[in-house]
Specification:
Chains A, B: Pfam families: FCD, GntR. Two copies of one chain form a homodimer. Chain A has two domains: 63 residues, Arc Repressor Mutant, subunit A (Orthogonal Bundle), CATH 1.10.10; 141 residues, Four Helix Bundle (Hemerythrin (Met), subunit A) (Up-down Bundle). By secondary structure, chain A is mainly alpha-helical. The longest helix of chain A is centred in the last third of the chain and has 25 residues. Helices cover 66% and strands 4% of the residues of chain A. In chain A, helix 4 packs antiparallel against helix 9. Chains A and B meet through helix 3, helix 4 and helix 7 of A and helix 3, helix 4 and helix 7 of B. Chain A binds a DNA duplex through helix 3.
DNA sequence: CCTTGTTAGATTGTCGACAATCTGCTTGTC
DNA sequence: GACAAGCAGATTGTCGACAATCTAACAAGG
């Protein structure tokens, strides 16, 4: 018998779907930082009772993209320049580690997947789909974490990713520019295929620097931003 | 007027208390890995309805010490040798980073706090309080993370800590020995007070190795362990 | 004018009941 | 005896209603 492995069955709970909906709304910037999430209103919009909604919100609070104050409400996290800088510096350290772990495990399947994800980024770029471009770029970047075969590291990266995606989406929204059309990932992919691990790590660090520089400048700009209630 | 800053007010929701109770039960090993958490039974024991209990469980699932299967139940995570090894190797990387960030910020308050926590470990050791010894040792270890002034790093560490505490508690329980009476942290504390950062980092790595070696051997032993349902 | 106490409205936290789903056993058939 | 279908019990997921708490507006008093 062929050794085909089935993926996990779909989560058939309302809770899971709510989590996905809310997460997407937050990560794409449809829900702004600091904004309050009114349970009654959202539950009515989604045609769902408050119970699964509240459970979903609990999950997102632990995921780090919502924050909750008892009897006051649940809010989208505020984004400060320091948060971004913190995430950024940790990301550098984790990238280094992920590349180190992945390096000896690279094989043809890894290279194929690398190309596939790279292609997805290029496609989103051509289509001028900003949101998707951010998504695919992070997925490309995430491959080294999936390949590193360290479950704790992967989890950590996924938590970090949520915020990174949010930060980038906010940035793009603010700039309101279409999208960079050049390909920033060519060298990254090439180095991951090559033989010099140190070079790949070095490039990853610098690559991250490029991505974050603008982001930080932007974040410092809205540092004085005031959290605004919902409605 | 004196500039005294008030700490945050106590969480007065049942949910928060339930989270604390459950976490403690899991981290001290009172709830065994793989064990199922029956909502009705627990809610009756705690004299609480299922709503806040379920929300609490959602939080702990995201915290990584519970796992949930829709319509099947919520379980304490299984502990495999690989999980421990993964957490351990990541911990080494994070320690390195935390020490690097903390290093230039060390001051008298840091040293005082370091001594305070070290003292707490020694006291728990003298009292032969195993659980508390693990707790205080992790708190001592956590100081470099609190001092690093990187919120994302701190969060990551706290997530990791939950599991580490669980692993160590399980180990201690299995060995059923009182506790090592010697002081393993003397050198660690001394190096953090010293002038050689590299030496401190190197020692941290080796220090972790010592702690984990036993733990790994133990975990490999029960690798064949079968998840057992509740009741 | 500022402060303090009160009150109404809105929102979050919690509860008990019902619906959907799973599990194990029984039954019937071959 | 093996195996599928179906049923009963238990457990999780969801709902609507009620209780606890917060917020903001307003009144009373200094």
């Amino acid at each position: 018998m062929a050794k085909l492995d089935f993926g996990p069955i779909a989560d058939t709970t309302r809770r899971a779907e709510i989590v996905a909906l809310l997460r997407r709304a937050i990560l794409t910037g449809q829900l702004e930082p600091g904004q309050k999430l009114n349970e009654l209103r959202i539950s009515e919009q989604m045609r769902v009772s408050r119970a699964p909604l509240r459970e979903a919100m609990r999950e997102l609070v632990q995921e780090g993209i919502l924050t909750s104050i008892p009897y006051a409400g649940t809010f989208v996290i505020d984004v400060t320049a320091k948060d971004i800088a913190d995430a950024y510096s940790l990301n550098k350290v984790l990238d280094d580690f992920a590349i180190e772990l992945t390096w000896p495990q690279r094989d043809q399947r890894f290279f194929d997947e690398l190309d596939r994800r790279h292609e997805a980024v290029k496609q989103a770029t051509r289509a001028l789909d900003t949101t998707r471009q951010i998504e695919t770029a992070l997925q490309l970047h995430g491959l080294i974490y999936e390949w590193a075969d360290n479950s704790v590291l992967l989890e950590t990266w996924q938590r970090l990713t949520s915020r990174l995606q949010m930060y980038f989406a906010l940035h793009q929204r603010a700039r309101n520019e279409p999208v960079p059309t050049e390909d920033l990932h060519e060298t990254y992919v090439a180095l991951l295929k090559g033989a010099d691990m140190r070079a790949a790590q070095r490039h990853a660090r610098e690559h991250i620097d490029d991505d974050f520089e603008e982001l930080l400048a932007y974040a410092r700009g809205l540092e004085k931003r005031v959290a605004k209630g919902a409605d």
